[in-house]
Each structure stands twice: as C-alpha cells, then as structure tokens.
Amino acid sequence: MSTIAAFYGGKSILITGATGFLGKVLMEKLFRTSPDLKVIYILVRPKAGQTLQQRVFQILDSKLFEKVKEVCPNVHEKIRAIYADLNQNDFAISKEDMQELLSCTNIIFHCAATVRFDDTLRHAVQLNVTATRQLLLMASQMPKLEAFIHISTAYSNCNLKHIDEVIYPCPVEPKKIIDSLEWLDDAIIDEITPKLIRDWPNIYTYTKALGEMVVQQESRNLSIAIIRPSIVGATWQEPFPGWVDNINGPNGIIIATGKGFLRAIKATPMAVADVIPVDTVVNLMLAVGWYTAVHRPKSTLVYHITSGNMNPCNWHKMGVQVLATFEKIPFERPFRRPNANFTSNSFTSQYWNAVSHRAPAIIYDCYLRLTGRKPRMTKLMNRLLRTVSMLEYFINRSWEWSTYNTEMLMSELSPEDQRVFNFDVRQLNWLEYIENYVLGVKKYLLKEDMAGIPEAKQRLKRLRNIHYLFNTALFLIAWRLLIARSQMARNVWFFIVSFCYKFLSYFRASSTLKV
User: Fold this and answer.
1) Alpha carbon 117 to chain centroid distance?
2) Which PANTHER family match (predicted)?
C-alpha cells in the first residue's frame, strides 16, 4: 500500500483556494487515494443566494469527481465548508469555526492567491502577502498541526535567469509594505507601484515573492515547505487526461486560436514553454506534505515543479501541435480558420494585431449593429489582446530552475508511492499531452459536444477555402494595381508570361517528337 496515501488517512486537512483549479484537483486526489481521511476544511467566500452546502454540491457536481464518488460515496459529508473572506482580518471566520480549525487541523495546503497580472497592489498584497501572514499566525496556534505547505510560483523570482530552491530577499520588507498600504491612498499607491516592483514584470510575481519572505519570517517553529510550479496546465493522467476549468494562461490562448480570434503572437519560438500538468503539481504537493510532516526538515525547503529543465518543449513545437489538433478536433463555430504566427518582431506583431484582429472585429460589430444586436466583438478582442500582451514577457524568455529538492524527494519515495504520486515530468509525452489538452478545453471548458466534430470540420473546410480565395483575390488586386503604376512591374509580368509560354511550347513540341 502507498505510504503517502496511508499517511493522510484519518487526517483533518485545511485547504485555502479549494474552489480554484488547483484546489479542486488536490481535493479529488486526496479523496480518491485516501478515502478514509477525516475531513477537509475549505474556506469559502460568501455568495449571494447559495448556502455553504450548495457551494459544496456545486464543486462536487463535476466530471472531475466521478471516480471519487465511486470510492468515497459520502464525500460530501467529509467536506466542511467554512465562511471566510481573505480580505478581512481573521478572515471573518466565526468564533466557533475558528476554534474548530485551531483544535483539529493536521495539515494546511495554502493555495489561495490572486493570479491576476494587472491587479492593484493593495488587493494583491492583501491576498498574497497579508492573508499568508494571517494564516501562519493561525497555524502557530494549532497544537495538532504537522505540516504547512505554501503554494507559490516558479516565477516569483523571474527577474533572475537562474533560480535556485531558496527564498530570495526582496528590496523592501513585506511588513513595511503592509503597514504603508494601511494609510496610503490609491492614487499614491498606483504612482509608487512601478518603483516598488522594479524588475518584476507584474504585481502578481512581485507579491508572490513577498509572500515567500513572509513564510520565512513568520514560520516560527512550524514545519513548512514551499512549492513553486511553473505554468499550471490541464491534467496529464489523473483522474483522466485533459481536464481544465478556467481560461487562465494557455487555456485562453488555445480558445482564442481555435475560434480564429488570435492570429499572431509576439513570442520567441524556441523559448521553453514551461507548462506543468496540474495533477503532477498535486502529486508533488501531497508527497511534500507527507515528507515535511514525517521527516520535519530543520529549515523551510523549496521545491520546484517545472518541465523545462527535465523535458523541455518550446513554444513553436507546442503551437504546431495545437494547430494540428484543431485540424482533427476543430472547435464549433470558429470566427475564422485557426492559425497563429509566432514572431519576435514587435512591429510585425503590432501590425498583425491591428489588421488581423481588430479590423474583422470592427466589421463584425457593424454587422451586429445592422441586425439589431449588441456589438461585443471589439470589446472581446481588446480584452484578448491585453491578456496576450501580459503573457508576452513569459513567452519570450526561458529560465533555469534547479530541482535538487524535488529529485531528492523522488528518491525518498517507495516504488508504489512513485507510481501513485508520480511527479516525474520526464515521462510526459508532449504531443499526446497537447492533443488531450486541446480536447479537454473543447469538452470541459467550452462544453462542446464531440458529436458535432464532423459539422465543425466542414465549417473549417469552408473557412479554409474562403481564406485561400480571399488571399488570392487580394494578391491579384495588389498585383494589378502595381502593374498599372510601375513599368518595372509590367516588365517583370511580361517576362513571366513570356517564359511560361515558351516553356509550354517547348514541352508541347517535346511531347510531339516523342510520339
């Protein structure tokens, strides 16, 4: 039997961010491999018109939990949802609920965070830094706590080229920033933000770095570990390939490309696409939770879970495979034929964004206005282009992450644990994974029926023919205008026609002689 699975049996586990992508996959794996765990506490924000129990059933009412319901039929009874708001002091948790958490919790997985690149500094610091400090304070009052696992990001120190499994200091102490934000108004905060984040590309990565410093400074005598995943993508194997439920990161690009909205991306084609499957991250999290609780390392260990250093795949290879998958499994009702040009030239990218993205969107909105419908395409396109521009920093660079601690942990696992909690990304077949990824976006995110694939292929064929006809017509019109205005163009044209005529005459004469 798996040692790690047995470890979580009978445990009371607190998960923050349980309603998010990573949190859901973590819960699923825990229930599927350790159905005899005692309880999972999840912190849930109040939502109008829904009770806590309804929120739990909403989470469980997903294909993700189908296998769990077979091995753990009473799974809904083992999820204890607690009203909480991470924007408030003490998370606004009731006195009774707080007492239960403090007295019963054995393991904490802190997954909650704002992942918006363009968030305000005040809000990002509150969720990624202050809330982490508050949770650590709670953890220090938990007599039964065995391990505190903090989920950061591999890009928390992306201002460096080579990143080791250590906690790097930030130029300004987190406490000073937290204290300053209490009395500074929003206008001043917006003004000083660029000076604070310095060479970090956005507020998200900067505040995640601050969060790691808080973990180091406020750890007290707790057994703590930090996990840094790179770009978290769809499931690889568990509970089935391709499951995804949000439009963050690559998911939005896949949808935009598959629907024909996205035509050009400013990217370095040979830069490493450091995508890591979410189930691989979860397997490492559970292995780290076990190791931290049982072996109690003397210092806070950092674990990188990335793909680039062990099994690299560049953006060009990924893009080619995504487009190849669209040919086999097209999305329904694409706006245009899927295509994506990778270019490292900023001017070319901006040109294509203006001509190939916005122009058709404006034309389509005019059509919607004429038919009495609300125009929406230009707004959608602007939002898409803004998202892509925020990702440009990451798709134009490659990083080197050391993985000594991750490899050490892998060697500590028994063969059975290595099988059940597999986080060895060297076994990942990228072509197979990308195809399942695109299929998962179609099935689980866009909710498209697989029975509609033949019709979608026909539509794709029509769009391809229209694309070729349009380009041919555009070329002929441009060439005709050029001939009318340029003597040199006319000379070239007459030379080509004359050459073709002579070649055909020679070919015809040769055929006659052979006969």
Assistant:
1) 12
2) FATTY ACYL-COA REDUCTASE 2 (PTHR11011:SF120), MALE STERILITY PROTEIN 2-RELATED (PTHR11011)
Contact 308, 403 (CB under 8 A): no
Contacts of 138 (CB under 8 A, 6+ apart): 98, 101, 102
Least confident of 26-35, 59-68, 148-157: 59-68
What gap in Å lies between CA 307 and CA 302, rounded to an integer? 16
* Partners of residue 151 on adjacent β-strands: 227
Token digits of residue 68? 């769990």
pLDDT tens digits, one per residue of 326-344? 878 777 766 555 665 555 5
- Dist CA 26 CA 285 (whole Å): 8
- How far, in Å, CA of 167 to CA of 181, rounded? 24
Q: Rounded to two decimals, what is the model's pTM?
A: 0.86
**Long-range CB contacts (< 8 A, 24+ apart) of 422-429?**
422/237, 422/280, 422/283, 423/280, 423/281, 423/283, 423/284, 423/287, 423/305, 425/276, 425/277, 425/280, 425/305, 425/306, 425/307, 425/310, 425/311, 426/310, 426/311, 428/236, 428/277, 428/280, 428/307, 428/311
Whose structure tokens read 């039964």? 144
Encoded amino acid at 16, one letter: T
CA atoms within 13 A on the CB side of 438: 27
- All domains of the chain, ordered by start, with CATH? 1-236+269-311+397-421 (3.40.50.720), 455-510 (no CATH)
203: alpha, beta or left, given left = phi > 0 and alpha = psi -120 to 50? alpha
CA 61 to chain centre: 22
| Count of positions (residues) in the chain | 515
Running DSSP on this structure, what letter comes out for residue 167? P
CB half-sphere exposure, 197, CA atoms < 13 A: 24
How far is CA 375 from each of CA 39, 252, 334, 353, 393, rounded to the nearest angstrom? 48, 21, 17, 19, 31
Residue 393 burial class via C-beta count within 10 angstroms: exposed 0-12, middle 13-18, buried 19 and up: middle
Mean pLDDT score, 39-61: 85
Query: Closest Cα partner for 281 from 409, 149, 400, 422?
Result: 422
Q: At what angle do helices 186-197 and 203-217 cross, to 10 degrees?
A: 80
Average pLDDT, the chain: 85
End-to-end CA distance of the chain: 81
Residue 389, CB half-sphere, CA atoms under 13 Å: how many?
A: 11
CB 238 within 8 A of CB 29: yes
Distance CA 243, CA 275 (A): 15
Question: Which residue bears the tokens 């990218």?
Answer: 349
Q: How far apart are CA 258 and CA 426, in angstroms?
A: 28
Compute the distance between CA of residue 109 and CA of residue 456 in angstroms, rounded to an integer.
42
